[in-house]
Amino acid sequence: MTIVIGVLALQGAFIEHVRHVERCIVENKDQYNEKLSVITVRDKDQLAGCNALVIPGGESTSMSLIAQRTGFYSDLYNFVHDPKKTIWGTCAGLIFLSQQLSNEAKLVKTLDLLKVKVKRNAFGRQAQSFTQTYDFSSFIPNCNDFPATFIRAPVIEKILDPEEVQVLCKLEEKDNSGQGLIVAAKQNDNILVTSFHPELAETDIRFHDWFIKEFVLKNFNRYK
Ligand SMILES: NC(=O)CC[C@H](N)C(=O)O
């Protein structure tokens, strides 16, 4: 059986995710105990064949409107709410998956999955976008120098259900309440979200490799 990783391709930086997953499949296939493939997803038939879905960066308002106007929203909603499926939302994908938005919420019908409140454009506009090397070794072994790119990025302002949602990474920078900015989290063991774009780390596939091993393969084996 082949495990299929879908990358939602309604809008945004989906091709970069496809390329990173393809590189993982080629370079690390001996470390994966299953055959894997990656496809772009634009409709319910393509989605139906997936075990996992990556929702890329872009504009969450556009993603949401396209999904609604093409009649694809309910298929996406049902897919992401299935615990047998593995989900990763990056940046706009994090916003699209979240239950609550604290700003610019009126046009986004989210997928109401992630039990968090999110602030859009938390670092400011495009001009405030940046790339910085971070130590993620607290959750990705030996990954202490990952180049994380933030582009008009959101942050998680509040964890609505600490039982289900675990913070993976908080930046040093503080928000108005004095807490570090939450930029990576997981819900249960099948949903990952990041404010930043590992797919834009041009030569570095460690984050995607970790997602495949820790989320896709583990969740697949959980329901095998
Ligand atoms: N790089 C991104 O995905 C930006 C997200 C975008 N600012 C939004 O609010 O949807």
Automatic annotation (TrEMBL):
Catalytic activity: L-glutamine + H2O = L-glutamate + NH4(+)
UniProt keyword annotations, A-Z: Glutamine amidotransferase, Hydrolase, Lyase
KW Lyase (keyword) present: yes
Pfam assignment, any one: SNO
Superkingdom, taxonomy of origin: Eukaryota
EC number(s) on file: 3.5.1.2
Family that this chain belongs to: Belongs to the glutaminase PdxT/SNO family.
Identification of the protein by name: glutaminase
Provenance organism: Saccharomyces uvarum
